[in-house]
Automatic annotation (TrEMBL):
Keywords: Glycosyltransferase, Transferase. This is Glycosyl transferase, group 2 family protein. It comes from Chondromyces apiculatus DSM 436. GO terms for molecular function: glycosyltransferase activity. InterPro entries: Glyco_trans_2-like, Glycosyltransf_2, NAD(P)-bd_dom_sf, Nucleotide-diphossugar_trans. Residues 6-177 form the Glycosyltransferase 2-like domain. The keyword Secreted does not apply.
Length: 340
């Protein structure tokens, strides 16, 4: 049967977990699928495990990339894949709750959706597979991620943090092709993909169920790859947000004269956008200047005059600012955008 869904699963040295990952996908019976499993330079028995799975189930398609990195491995997987819908999976995660069927249904029911993710459940293991506690920072990120469900949610939060867990998503093949496919960048390849899609007007959503058990283990790229460092995320935000602000053609103001606002403003400046105003509620900062721009109180903002970037780091501050701006007639997405 020709697959509707092709699951792209790159792996490297995942002999301990890849069988469970494959089994969790292949156990779904409600959608025609294949799994394109790309060995990206393994030195353990992972390729033998995958070969054994392929011998038992023809839906497993083994591919070898020679160790080219995740972006090019994914591009290779996509070139081999036959499905019109491309799903992602990592070799140490577990797909649950008929994720693929639910995502395919969501894409079928709404032709305007380009990408559908899923809520995730984070769990942690050590180098030998022993259970560990998920860190507080990751728990907070997952709570935030799982609170973003609708296309409006994803558009609103795009410059705050990556709003989709990459191994949890399914996307239309033509949508991926329309934005240039998977690309190697200085920053995380998945966040770059979402930012490119957002710039192209692609609508993203999540199924409301938990669809992936997302493993965090010692050595995971999220923690060790320099492309996932905070500084690289700031570079990505500065690059794409500056392009958006230039199109709007208005003077730029940044709400937040603290560390978060200053760093984001510096990233914008590196991309040719120079904030002319900073906004803050701290009376000790008002009247001073930062990066050559004055710091003023919120009452100085005029709707329609500035393209406002809200960049604050204190927990709960973003929600309070959104409430204030809404009461003053500002519309998120038109008059201001939140970032971090």
């Amino acid at each position: 049967m020709h697959p509707l869904v092709s699951v792209l699963l790159p792996y490297r040295n995942a002999g301990r977990t890849v069988e469970e990952a494959l089994g969790s996908v292949l156990s779904e019976r409600g959608v025609p699928l294949e799994v394109v499993a790309v060995d990206d330079g393994s030195t353990d028995d992972g390729p033998e495990v995958v070969a054994g799975a392929a011998a038992r189930d023809a839906r497993v398609v083994p591919v070898a990339s020679g160790g080219v990195g995740i972006a090019r491995a994914l591009s290779q997987a996509a070139s081999v894949a036959r499905g019109e819908l491309l799903a992602r999976m990592d070799a140490d995660d577990v797909s649950v709750n008929e994720r693929l069927r639910r995502q395919a249904e969501a894409l079928r029911e709404d032709a305007g959706l380009g990408v559908v993710g899923a809520r995730v459940e984070a769990f942690a293991t050590g180098a030998e597979g022993e259970a560990r506690e998920v860190g507080e920072g990751m728990r907070r990120y997952v709570d935030w991620l799982n609170g973003i469900v609708t296309p409006e949610d994803h558009a609103r939060e795009m410059f705050v943090e990556s709003p989709l867990c990459h191994p949890s998503v399914m996307m239309r093949r033509e949508v991926l092709a329309s934005v240039g496919g998977f690309q190697e960048t200085r920053w995380a390849e998945d966040y770059d993909l979402w930012l490119r899609m957002a710039a192209a007007g692609v609508r993203m959503a999540k199924i409301p169920e938990v669809g992936l058990r997302w493993r965090h283990q010692t050595g995971r790229a999220t923690f060790s790859d320099p492309r996932y460092a905070i500084a690289r995320f700031l570079e990505a935000k500065g690059h794409y947000l500056a392009a958006r602000l230039r199109k709007e053609g208005r003077r730029v103001a940044v709400w937040g004269a603290g560390r978060t606002g200053r760093r984001l403003a510096a990233a914008l400046r590196e991309n040719g956008v120079f904030p002319c105003l900073f906004v803050d509620i701290d009376p000790r900062k008002i009247g001073r200047s930062v990066q050559g721009a004055p710091i003023v109180e919120p009452g100085r903002l005029e709707r329609g005059v500035y393209a406002l970037v809200v960049a604050v780091g204190a927990r709960g501050a973003r929600a309070l600012i959104r409430e204030h701006l809404g009461s003053a007639g500002f519309t998120e997405g038109e008059d201001y955008v939140c970032a971090s």
